[in-house]
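Friendly challenge for the regulars: who can give me the structure tokens for this chain first? No prize, just bragging rights.
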Amino acid sequence: MYLKVKKSFGPALKDTLFLRTYGLTKIPMLLLIAPKVLQLTNERCAIRVPLNRLTKNHNGSMYFGSLAIGADCAARLLTMRILSEHKNIKLELSDYQAQLLRPAYEDIIFSCDEGLAISTQAKRVGKDKQTLELAVTAWPSSHPTENPIAKFSFVISLENT
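First reply, four minutes later:
Bragging rights claimed.
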């Protein structure tokens, strides 16, 4: 569940700049939706995606593609942080599911709290590929502890390079 995020500009700003630079060099679509890292620890990642002209659909709610990108950013950034300690492990997405629960008419916060599970699986990677299911939840920014907007599930594969 989403927890209140401390207002700190140090690490969150650095992580947001990293995410945007990564987007500039690897995934230009990230620049269009302008995700902002609210929290990134070894246990959790929280990202905010603003509702604006580029992220909403014809009904005025957040476009599914924007929701998918936000969820992917939360899961992938947390995984990349943990895998930075394991230089020889490659990450691949092998399955993706989304459950849209209601329309999103405001900024959305995506949270992934699977850091411990990622770290455990990364330590188990040897000759065999390890798979892991990561859950990401999308919350409205005005009420981050109430009913979620959407739930996402990513199955990732970790293997030695």
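The radius of gyration is 15 Å. The CA atoms of residues 4 and 144 lie 8 Å apart. Your move, everyone else.
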